[in-house]
What does this fold into?
Amino acid sequence: MHISLNKRKRDAIAGYLFILPTFVGVMTFSIIPIFLSILLSFTDWNFAGKPNFVGLSNYVREFSSDVFRKSLVNTVYYTILSVPGQIIVSLIVALALNKLIKGKTFFRTVYFMPVITSTVAISMVWTWIYDEKFGVINAILKLFNIKGPAWLINEKLVLPSLAIIGIWRRFGYQMVLFLAGLQSISRHYYEAADIDGASSFAKFWYITLPLLTPTMFFACITAIMNSFRVFDLAFIMTGGGPDYASHTLVLEVYRLAFQFMKVGPANAVATIMFIFILVITVIQLKLQEKWVFYEGD
Amino acid sequence: MGERKKLKQAMLSVCLGIFSFFTVFPFIWMFLTSLKKLTQIYQMPPKILPNPVMWKNYIEAFQEFPFARAYLNSAIITVVGVSFFIITSAMSAYAFSKISFPGRDGIFNFLLISLMIPFEVTMVPVLVIMKGFGLNNTLTACIIYAVFANTYGVFMIRQFIKGLPNDLIESAVIDGCGHGRIFVKIVAPLIKAPVSALVIFNFITNWNNFMQPLVFLSSREKYPVPLLLYMFQGTFTSRQDLAMAAACIAILPILVIYLIFQKNIIEGVAFSGLKA
It folds into this structure.
């Protein structure tokens, strides 16, 4: 009795000591900051002096600000442009790779390459590819006697142009998820369908697609979360321009905080983003419960 | 293999091959442009191959910007950051799965909240806290954030340690081993393989990280590679040859690491959805 009590005490001390660095670190640099961010969103602080409570006025101010509304619309538009593209491209490539007998590793390695490359380097080369006068794309268009536009300086084209880079950069990641999902589908289903004389399309529609739903869902969630946080590409390539046509929510947080020292409004935007992330996460958890049965296969 | 099937496979390879070309084209173009003479770059229609081949561009890019220094900064942030990330994550993962103490699972679930908190949302308070610790404009700030910003390391390593048999640890306890020794002598060697994917992936993420250095650092001699490259691009808008050489210099180490470890990285993503 005495020994086991002693052991329990020792275990408790050891346990707390083992988690101490992580606990303190995560609290200080992740969890406390999110609460601070929410608190600051109700103040008029500007990095100096004493913060005053201003109620909801930062939120009101932001929602009536054209720039904020533009950044919100742009972020949603970018997501609508890039997420379905990513999913469709990666799914097609994964289906093709899954059928391929030789050379799978080679192609997989190539397609994943953009995922691991620095966004800054990527932005630089794509800026050059999109260049109005000397870019490759417009040079090819010229061969067909088409005068290529200024992709990144045109208000209508800038977000689609960035979304194409987004798709190019991330489809490899989703492809790997889909490949893993495809490989986990049991061969028996297809063999049974073959006996019934099912066509390739029928097999895809009635076996592959339904059994891939959980993977598809996970891929969509990660893609949405990622495109919602888009910053680097726009910041480096266009600075949010022209005339805020590629200004995104994160750019708005950055601009308000570090260009105008408006900490309150910046954190109001950040809090709005956090609420969105919370909602998506709750949806994810709810739907995951529903789909556990597939994963049991 | 039947003729029909062979033909199908060949067609599939051709399609995937064409698509591969489009995927790597930006990299090829970056490299080709980096070797061209400036007059050749601003030529329409563009010449595909560089003539003459200007390896000199690389030397000039190195001379114009302190890349050596930036490499060192990136290496410090990445190596120190990843090491502490793995050590602290493995320690808490061990505690959260094999040591029993009051409130264990509650604390674990609470810490997982951090998985929903990206830097994009907390950059202002995090910067203020870093300033409060006197860490403004230091590599330490970047390292600390890389180590503690999230708990997916703890989450993943915990999954592996949970799978280890309890007897292993209990018998060591009976032999009089403390948890520190069990962790170092028994658990650490066993999780080496699964943790390696996490190490490589974290290494790449930290090396490419742009936003935290952008927010934390203000003096150029502290910039890691991506941030220096960003400054470079801003300053040399009319020197596309040097800019592309600099971009090549910047991505080379990660590309090499990727090609060596691509199997671990891709399998890590496939089995655990490592964040990219």
Summary: The CA atoms of residues 98 and 235 of chain B lie 54 Å apart. The radius of gyration of chain B is 24 Å. Residues 3-58 of chain B form one domain.
